[in-house]
Design a protein that fits this description.
Elements (H helix, E strand, L loop, with lengths): L6 H12 L16 E9 L3 H9 L3 H15 L2 E28 L5 E29 L7 E25 L5 E26 L2 E30 L1 H7 L2 E6 L1 H4 L1 E17 L15 E16 L2 E14 L7 E7 L7 H38 L15 E5 L6 E9 L3 E2 L3 E7 L5 E3 L11 E4 L6 E2 L4 E6 L9 E10 L4 E11 L9 E7 L4 E9 L11 E3 L5 E3 L25 E3 L5 E3 L22 E9 L4 E9 L13 E9 L5 E13 L7 E12 L2 E9 L5 E8 L7 E8 L5 E9 L5 E8 L5 E11 L7 E9 L8 H12 L2 H15 L13 E9 L4 E11 L2 E6 L16 E5 H11 L5 H4 L8 H9 L29 H4 L11 H26 L1
Antiparallel strand pairs: 1-2, 1-43, 2-3, 3-4, 4-5, 5-6, 6-8, 7-10, 8-9, 10-11, 11-40, 12-13, 13-19, 14-18, 15-16, 15-20, 17-19, 20-21, 22-23, 23-30, 24-25, 26-27, 28-29, 28-31, 31-32, 33-34, 34-37, 35-36, 35-38, 38-39, 40-41, 41-42
Length: 1001
Amino acid sequence: MNARSSIPSLLITALLLASLAPLSSVAAVPTEASEFYYGVEYDWSSVDTDLENFTGLDIPEILGEVMGAADDAGFNLIIGQLQTGSSNVYVHHTEDIAPQTIQDNNGNDVSVWSRTDDVTLRHGILADSILQTDWSEKTFGSDETSFDIDVVQSLEQVLTVDMTYTEYLDDSSNLIGADMEFSMDVSADIGLNIDALFEGGGDDFPVDFDAELTIGYSITDSTSQWRLGSPDPVYVELSSNDEYEWECGESECGDLTGDYTGAVDYSFSIEGIPTEDFGLDAGEFDLEISDSLTDSGNFDMEMYGEWDFSMGETLTVDLGDGDGVSTQVQSCEDCPPGNPLMFMMMAYVLAGSGEAFAEQIGEDLGEGITDGIEDWFGVGGSAETDGMVNYYSFYAYESSNDEDLALIQMNQGTDINWDTVSLTVVVDNGYPTTCVNPGSIDITVECSLETGSSDDYWRVGDTVRIVDNADLCPAGEYCSITIHITDVANSVLLSVDYLYVEGQSPAGSIGMLKGELHSWGEQITMQSSVVGGTPFVTGDFANFGCDDGTIIDWDEVSDGNNDCSNGEDEANLDGSAKWFTCNDGSEIDWQQLNDYFADCTTAEDEGIKHHYTLQMTLYDEMGAPLYSIEKTICEANCDSNPDWDSDWSEETGVSMPSEYGETTMCMDAMISETGASSPLLELDQMCEFFWIGPEIGSIYLRTDGLDFVEYDAYMYDYSNADDATATLTLKDPNQNSIITETIDINGSSSYYELSGSTSVLEEGEYCLHVELIQDGEATPYTSETVCEMIEAIEEDVSERVETVFSAIIDSGLQDVLEQFGMNLEDRLETVEPFEEFPYDDFKWAPLWSNEHAAIVGVGVYVMNDNGTYTMAGPTTQGYTDEAPAKLSIRYLTGLAANTATNGMEEATNIDDIVDVEDHNLDDIAEDLAEAGIDVSNLTLPEDNPTDGTTNDDNPTPPTAEELAEDAGALPFLSPVSMVAVIVLAGVVAGSRRDENQDEDA
């Protein structure tokens, strides 16, 4: 976007914001109280004039050219827009220098003086636009082809703000705090009507579409109090330094407390979409949603502020009524457009009250909109509706409780019974673990859910603890957590949430024993693993006690050295037998100790103090044992070492069944200290399902009425089997087979498909059945069926729509539109935007006064080769007010600002802010009629504030483009259309310059 073309709108916006700057004096306690008035006004009816001043674009001329190009091409086009509006901001500044007492942030009484700014903002706009176009074509012996389209758009926008900001300073001009009373009301009403008639082929297609959106939001009666943590010399420092970095941390900035009353209302309606001509019921997409919510509450926030200030050029400005009252100021290059502390407090008040209000009414507002949308799409219903799954939203976050894996809260949805919810967690991309729901008595699970209540429902706002019962994320480690929440009643995944947490599970957990079965190769493999903690004690070896009470390490026994004083740790020197008694009572020769071979059952002859046994057993689906194995676990001379291993696999030698289909295998396992009567860890019998042979992947039955029924079946064979057959059958509502197809699964591929399409004769339920049969067997080992109700359907598009638009497509309309484009390009050759922007540079200058220790206004200054000018702001020495290109902004001070403020304080609606008598929609028709446009069928909004008449008495009206040469003859554009015209003009001008360059070359 061209930066220069955007400057007018930027300046307007900046000036309105800047007018909130207070006029104040805090160098010391004033000896005389000051009082100031000032304000900024803008009349939005001046937009087109301001645009022409800066760009050279004459909007009425451009509109005339567009409509003239349409006339020349052979169709009628009317474009008219009317906008009336006003934006006004006024500030009344007063000081109360009498001693006052307030309490600081610590509750201590403080003597202060105060200064107050009453801010009044009133903004209102009425905008209406029309577009009417019609065209017809009549050839001998054929029906007329035509269209007649009327589009009417309306906008009403209102913003009101009333703010009283009072700041308190001590005798040294240190800021103690501030109070604010704040009210804001914003509303918008947007309407769109499309009335059209299309004709062709002897038929017609009418459209009467209406849409309206009304929305309002208000924060009223908000009172707030800000007290700093300690007195702050911010204004004194700013008055003494050209460069100052101000930072107010959480402890220094103190707290903001306040209350509010908030309200929101909205309505949205759509009607008139011609659904009946597109295969839907009449009014299918008609929609109406509305609600109004009000709530009151409090907010409490910690304050924080940070600003960098840099003072620039010194200026002398007139702050009075032009009678010579002037003061020296500096342009504050990094300042906001007003007192930064007032703006900061206002932002916190808006945020605090807005967030608190949103939390209070958010659920009700969301439900109202959701219900309306659901009704629109025909999916609404009560919580008891069978099969109805509402939109859910959950939020997962880390817990500070060392027993929890995570916390998860339901933020949106419908209360759901715990009997229908399944929550599964995956830790570090491992195996999924399903947590037991609240109230379960199962304590052997790896994770459980706790709510802290006995409620049978998970409700919006409820937070659920995911308790880590098996040390899934051990203490001291960081884990990635994936949480799946499923509505098992409807087989719908409600949410997937991701989290990265630090393990908080208690240390010392013995973990859990998990089991898995695999069909690797042609036999079953059992696998057991310990997860979360360990049951094994390691690094604790046996010692040997000498007769004299000395304790030596076990590895010093039978090592050839007498480590005990009497040599009792060694074999007898005379070669006589010396025996060692094992834990089970058996005896071995003393020389077999520490020989790196376990001669005792539990290896105590090798110093092993803790010896474990793992037992795994395989069962068939009837519970009959098929295979069992025991493995020893210890730190030396066992099947595995607990320091190295936490999972164990064993090939069972049990082959997979030869029959195709699903088979079930089960296993259990336990770990115990060898010889103990009870296990340390135990895995209850768990089962796995295995598929043998080819399988059905998916089947589909799709229909588009009786004339098209499509079927597909996909089979997969990952075992390279060569002895199965797939059969597909399509049955009609009477169970008669109308399609039968087969395919041999012969090991040539891992993927097989049966598909095709057909037509059917009658409505009803049709079923697609697919089955797989192993060679040599009489019955299928697997099958699937899917059924669909097939009904005759009406055409998506009605016959009249096809007739009308086919005739329009076959007409000469395309040639007409192409001619319009060429005509418009030719006509816009005469539209010349400025080659150069009126100014070379501009300066945005919030005006800081060291005398008042405040921003006392704002100036917008522009420069070119001929001089320097005040675009908006107070009278400034060295800058002339007679700028060559101006904006229609009024900058008021003194009595004029006071009078304007009094006139606007009671304005609360569009009638108070805008002179609706000036917004006479009949002016559009009158101006167009004077321009030679036929307005006999012109449609205007029905809520026209005045009744006007069109002028039909001119027997030889001038053309539109001729009349447009008179300023203001045609309605001006809205700001959005204005931007579009700027872009269009820029494109045309750029294209013309390129053509000229090509010709010169």
